[in-house]
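Hi F.,

I've been meaning to write this up properly since the lab meeting, where we talked about keeping a consistent format for the predictions we share between groups. The idea is simple: the sequence comes first, exactly as it goes in, then the structure tokens exactly as they come out, then a line or two of notes. No screenshots and no reformatting. I'm using this chain as the first example so we have something concrete to point to.
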Amino acid sequence: MLINREIAVDFCEELRQQGNTIVFTNGCFDIIHAGHVRYLTTAKNFGDVLIVGLNTDESVRRLKGASRPINNQDDRAEVLLGLKAVDHVILFGEETAEHLIAEVKPAVYVKGGDYTLETLPEAKIVHRFGGRVELVNLVAGHSTTNIVEKILTGLK
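Output, unedited:
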């Protein structure tokens, strides 16, 4: 389900009261590929409910450049929600997910292994409320940037 940001705090509190362990991750998820599917499946295995913070179109442009996203936020949310591992999606427009994480307060925050606890700004927030951070290995060679480059190279 796509969760409205305004009700995220209450929604997550209700999930916790029901005994669920909330797992959270975030990203652009512009063109879903096998690396994303494996990453999200691994993330889901850390708890009961996986919530994905999805960058809005505007924030993707700020992070990735004017030519991105390839797919708009509604389409990206729909594709994510179609994956077995993903339970809920929340859109956010900030540069990092720090504020959203402070609202959701997941028991587990998952990010790719290209980060470290020192380079991940969200880690401090998670540790502040007693959550844990899990860094998972990425699938080599699988990235939206690589896919876009492959398409553009093939068109020339």
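Notes:
The first strand starts at residue 22 and ends at 27.
The mean pLDDT is 93.

If this format works for you, I'll send the rest the same way.

G.
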